[in-house]
Amino acid sequence: MAPLVLGVFLAATPATPGQIVHRLFVEAQRSSEAASPDPGRLAAAVLRDFDFEALTRAAVGPDFSALSARDQTELSALLGRVVAHAFARRVLARPGPPLAVSVGTVAIDGDVARVDATLAQGGDRYALTAHLTRPGPAGAWKLVDLVNDGSSVVETYRR
Which range scores top for mean pLDDT: 26-30, 64-68, 95-99, 136-140? Predict the structure, then answer.
């Protein structure tokens, strides 16, 4: 009975910022190694781990607040689909050795976190910084931006 209780407790424990970054790129690695890669599966992982309303709010800036609630929701959903599918296509288009992620420094300040990580593929290494937020101490961490070698998702879609 004790292992069952422990398993239920662990399943209910929210993932840490480092675990979220690691989980996303492990899914990317699995998808890229699959005999028949499925971009939809990888896109679903991106949609699960990102807060696209926060990403859209950051990309659009102050004008986001001027939109109706419905337009905010629709724009966030649209940008979410675009980012998720672009991420999946980019990862799956990289031929070669498997993709590996190494999570380094995790800095948490209240409900904001920064995760520094390294992506490696063959002899190539890429610096990655993930920015995450959560809606209070009991909330789930979600990605709001990924910066890969200086290229930010938010900056890419900023108007």
Answer: 64-68
pLDDT bucket at 119, cuts 50 / 70 / 90: confident
Beta-bridge partner residues of 118 = 102, 127
Residue 34 pLDDT more than 80? no
Judging by DSSP bridges, how do beta strands 99-109 and 112-121 pair with one another? antiparallel
112-121: strand order across its sheet: 99-109, 112-121, 124-133, 142-148, 151-152
The residues pairing with 102 across neighbouring beta strands, listed in sequence order, are 118
Bridge partners for 107 per DSSP: 114
Distance from C-alpha of 8 to C-alpha of 73, rounded to nearest angstrom: 33
Nearest-10 crossing angle of helices 52-60, 69-92: 100
For the segment 121-134, the average pLDDT, to the nearest whole number, is 90
The upper half-sphere exposure of residue 8, i.e. CA atoms within 13 Å in the direction of its Cβ, equals 4
- Residues counted in the chain: 159
Phi, psi values for residue 35, rounded to 5°: -60, -35
Q: Which residues pair with 17 in a beta bridge?
A: none
- Give the three-state DSSP class for 119: strand
